[in-house]
Every structure is written in structure tokens, then in C-alpha cells.
Specification:
single chain; 196 residues; alpha/beta; Rossmann fold; 5 strands; 13% strand; globular; Thymidylate_kinase; Thymidylate_kin-like_dom; ATP-binding; Thymidylate kinase
């Protein structure tokens, strides 16, 4: 079974997906965990090129559509490699739906291209959508101190997820509570799916 953990920034995707995979391993399930690989090395290289050209950073060098396609291509390669020899259970931190929602909220015109690019990837057996209030997501983002997102962006991102045609098939997990409470809800959803 392929299990995808998705949601807006600050929902807790990475921590929850990682712990979910560890819990499954503790129950002797052969599990593959696929973390989210960022484009950090590519962005740093593009930032250097931008500075050489007298620009601030990669956002002034390449448009959002191009960056989204670069990220999607890198993620496709990572997922293709990870899923080419699947374990009985594979837990993925983020999936294609995150790209589609991001394209919608950013107003990028490349969702169709992203969907066509990703069409080789399997449809997850379980999509765990961490549903969080944007205010709580913003509070968590500020606490981690790595980046920041506006409340308006987070509200738009949530709306973008809700507008996806696949949204009705997601398993909704209330992600507003404490870490352990959210993890318990995830585990219950996975128990039910694996029992089928």
C-alpha cells in the first residue's frame, strides 16, 4: 500500500509521516519511507547565478512556473526510483497533490503539465490530508523559525487543496491538536486501511 501524507505548510507532514513509518516498522511491517527532497542545492546554485547577473536570488532569475517544473521533475525522479521496487507499505512525505495545490495557489498555469508529467506515478491507496486551520499552521511555521508564510497564502493554499478533483477521496485528519493526538488519528486511519 502506498500512503501519502499531504497538507498545507505547517500541518506537520514531515514529522508525522516519519513517525508513522517508524510505528509501522515497530509492528514488523516492511516499510519504505520516502522523505520530501527539496531543491535546496539547485536553488543555491541558481541563487549564485542570479547574484552574478545582478539579481537578488533565483526568484528574479526564473519564473514561478519554471521553478515549479524543476521541483516537480526532481520529485518525479525521486518517487519513480523509490516506487520502482515498492515495499509492502510505502509512506511518502508529500505527493503530487501538493504540487497541484501549490500551482493553483501561486497562479501558475502549469497544473496540466504537472499532471501529465506525473501520470506514470501510482495512485496512493491512502491519502492522509492533514487538515489544519491556517492560523495554527502559521503559528507552527513561526515557531520552527526557518521560513514564514502569510495567513492569506495559507488560506489560499487550503482552498487550493479543497478545489482539487481528488479532494473528496482524501482521508481527512484533524491536525490542529498536539503531535501525539494527530499521530494517533493517522495510525487509526492506517490500521483501518491495512485491515481492508
Amino acid at each position: 500500500m502506498l500512503i501519502a501524507v499531504i497538507g498545507i505548510d505547517g500541518a506537520g507532514k514531515t514529522s508525522q509521516a516519519h513517525d508513522l513509518a517508524g510505528w509501522l516498522r515497530a509492528w514488523d511491517w516492511p516499510v519504505r519511507y520516502v522523505p520530501n527532497q527539496t531543491l535546496l542545492p539547485v536553488r543555491r546554485a541558481l541563487d549564485r547565478i542570479a547574484v552574478e547577473d545582478g539579481l537578488r536570488d533565483h526568484t528574479e532569475l526564473l519564473d514561478a512556473d519554471t521553478m515549479r517544473l524543476l521541483a516537480a521533475g526532481a520529485r518525479l525522479a525521486q518517487l519513480h526510483d523509490a516506487l520502482s521496487d515498492p515495499a509492502p507499505v510505502t509512506v511518502v512525505d508529500r505527493y503530487t497533490y501538493c504540487q497541484y495545490a501549490a500551482a493553483r495557489v501561486l497562479g501558475a498555469g502549469n497544473e496540466d503539465v504537472l499532471r501529465r508529467l506525473n501520470r506514470e506515478l501510482p495512485t496512493p491507496g491512502l491519502v492522509l490530508y492533514l487538515d489544519i486551520e491556517p492560523e495554527e499552521a502559521r503559528r507552527r511555521i513561526k515557531l520552527r523559525g526557518v521560513d514564514d508564510e502569510s495567513l492569506e497564502f495559507l488560506e489560499g493554499f487550503r482552498d487550493a487543496y479543497r478545489s482539487l478533483p481528488e479532494y473528496g477521496g482524501f482521508t481527512h485528519i484533524d491536525a490542529n491538536g498536539g503531535f501525539d493526538d494527530v499521530q494517533a488519528r493517522l495510525r487509526e486511519a492506517v490500521r483501518a486501511a491495512l485491515a481492508d
